[in-house]
Amino acid sequence: MKRDTKEKQISALDRMFKENDSYFLLDYERMTVAQAVELRKTLRRNSYAFKVVKNRLALRALGSSLPAELGKTFKKTTAIAFAASKPVELAKMVREFSSKNKILAVKGGVIEGQAFPGSRFEEICRLSSREELLSKVGFFVAYPLTRFLRTWQAPLNQCGVLLSQLKNKKIALEV
Fold this sequence. Notes:
Blueprint: H1 3-19, E1 22-27, H2 33-45, E2 49-53, H3 55-62, E3 78-83, H4 87-101, E4 105-111, E5 114-117, H5 121-125, H6 130-174
Antiparallel strand pairs: 1-3, 1-4, 2-3, 4-5
């Protein structure tokens, strides 16, 4: 491969690493071309990217931003699945494809700037999506406030009922 071609690939990879704060390093050793095309299409439909890379070029593109834990994972065949947003969704898609075809192995990755080894991939797949987590936090914040307001509302309701009964009693006495 010529030097200028390598430089173009390094700059393209560098741009992808900067645009996407989450990515998974995959071992695609037994994957056929048809399976790679299928995975690429599936990921592209969901706004993700899949790229087969040369290890040295990927290491050059990452440069000093390479997490120390991931330096050892750039061995043998390596492909990278990129996510600009919703990395847990990407992890679930990769796991589903991998379990369906029995081919991909996750070497490691980075989620929103935090590196993780491949052994923790299943934990990431079990996480809820960001929206689900935010809704749970919102519920847990709002629930005590709702209970507090209901507690304050009960005496006011009782006071209203009492005043209504006094009014009815006064009307009954006047008649």
